[in-house]
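Re: weekly structure request thread

Next one in the queue (789 aa):
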Amino acid sequence: MTPPNPDELSSASMLELFRAETETQTAILTTGLLELERGDIDAQGFELLMRAAHSLKGAARIVNLPLAVLVAHGLEDCFVAASERKLDLRQEADLLFRGVDLLAQLARRTEANLLAWETEHAPEISEFLGLLEQLKETRGAPTPTGPAARETRRRAADSRPGPASEATVGERGEGFPAGWEPLLPTAAEARRLEESTRGLAIRKTESPERVLRLTAENLNRLLALAGESLVESRWLRPFADSFQRLKRHQMDLRQQLERLRLALGEDRLPDRAKASLSEFSRQLADAQQFLTERMQELEMFDRRAAHLAQRLYLEVLRTRMRPFSDGVRRFPRMVRDLARSLGKEVKLEISGETTPVDRDILERLETPLAHLLRNAVDHGCEPLAARMSAGKPPECSLHVEARHSAGVLLVTVSDDGAGVDLEQVRRVLVQRSLAAAAAAEKLSESELLEFLFRPGFTLKEAVTEISGRGFGLDVVQNMVKSVRGAIRLNNQPGRGLRVQLQLPLTLSVVRALLVQIGGEPYAIPLSQITRTLKLPRSSVSALSGRDHFQLAGQQVGLLSAHEVLDCGQPGVSDPELHVVVLSDRAARYGLVVDRFLGERELVVQPLDARLGKVQNISSAALMEDGTPALIVDVDDILHSVQKLIAAGRAPAGQRSQLGSAAGRPKRVLAVDDSSTVRELERKVLLGHGYLADVAVDGMEAWNALRSNDYDLVITDVEMPRLDGIALATLIKKDPRLKQLPVLILSYKDREEDRLRGLEAGADYYLTKGSFHEESLLRAVVDLIGEPVT
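Done, posted below.
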């Protein structure tokens, strides 16, 4: 059924209103039936079920849909009998869900195709009503349960005519089940229908302004205008600052006037000159006072305007928000039906249903969440026998949660199933020639999990209607990337998988890092930035003719944003490179920008459609002073970088830009809790051409080692928090650092102390008692060679 086009719901047709009513009431019926099946329903729950079925019956009577009346009436009778404990419906959820589905399908018909649908589905409705009649005949007696009892009733229903079996559907209003006469709503039923649809239609006796339909395009334009007003309100601040400068000029002028009065000698001036100077001084003081008062008013207006613009923007933004529950209503039924088809017991819990979510994001979330839940039921939740043998409850638990945290929307899907078998992932990689056996063995857990998002990659051996084609997680990944979000996986083999989608609160606002490139501001969404850092030019090294630097033990390619965006050459005055690290599933790259301008929350302004797709740019925004800033399309940037590298161009490869890596100085970390010893070691190393950093204890040294690259560590033994022996042990156990030489410099000169240090992994043991400059330098040269000049 097509939605109504008029601006107000009061102009909608009766069938359209019935469809809206059915969507609301079938959602209530679905939730109640799921509670009934789990045995969690109470008297209030049965009351909700009865009220929903009764409301649908009354609505169907008003719009003259006799088949819908019969279905709703049959459901209502069952709920009444169950609430009076005359009927046990816990094992009859499948049958009752058939009735809900029939009502939902009937409501989606238009006036043009309603008759054809009724003709086609009359036998199905007749069968359903017959099964309900047979079920209701068991009132007062215990209800046989289980699949065998349900199948017996089904066969009996096929062999005996139900109350609708005599139907011969012809023209509208004719040929309905025997005994059917068109029913007009009673006054009470009309009142109930009116109450149930009060939120969906505007009664003509009420003000038509209470509910208004607004198109998405109009709402987007309104939000854009509110965003512009917010930006414009911020323009008053720099304007007020300029008045402050004017005030200082007036004060300088008044001081100069006083100095002039003193220089001329007021006593020697004629009376007319004295009067002129006094009048000029008075007028200058009045002007200064007037300016001060106006500045105070301007500052007050600035605060009020900024506050009002912020409130206006937030109110308009709230109109785009919908509760998370609007996007997940169909999932409990979907999970229930899917689990039953697979012979599993699964319970879905949804929390954060009232969390507000941007309308556009909520619409895009539905398909990815459906894929994640289907994967969880099919792949994650084990069969009953496997769960029992693992000591788990027979019912697998799925949990969907939505919440706001640190300015982002977090949507989490978790289960207590088997999790991802990493060894199976390795085997599939080798079987499909995606990685060699030796390479697959070296892949970390995070790297293995990344393959799950690869298009066509699946752990299923056979394709089924539910899964096995390997495109579900790829759909999830693409949706998250399209809204500038991120995915985090937390796998616990044997205990379950947790998938977290990190999404922006709204697509209309973006938190971004402002950078300067070629004298112009650019915005890079924070959600797509892996890291930012200031990199000394001496840390850049050449690898295969291109610039690289080390980050967390990995070589990261370094490229100039100037060449990627084709905006000239960068300057070379800054001794440090401002680097933004961007990454995708394949690789990471460091983008060199001129400087960082700070974080901002920007109102996204779409580019004129006539421009088409602008390479490397997604949209634009206005800063506080009205300066336009282009928002970078990170995926496009990464694609451009890969094209440049494939073409044999090394954008940041010129040594004049990023520094010389051929003769990179060797870097040493000196660790000692004595400031005297630390400073002595640092001066000795610097004086002989080595770069030297210091740390006050083992913990500070360990943090430095994980974020920087060193050629040697010189450490004391006795230190707070983490001593030198423990530090050496950590270094030698770390796969990235185990080749790093460690020199222990200690007051302990006993043989057992020296052996203890060497057993911990130290490459050299030097005592402070015999310490002098030559011995330290000789040990350093033995371990890492001469300094680079």
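The first strand starts at residue 321 and ends at 323. The mean pLDDT is 76.
Next request, please.
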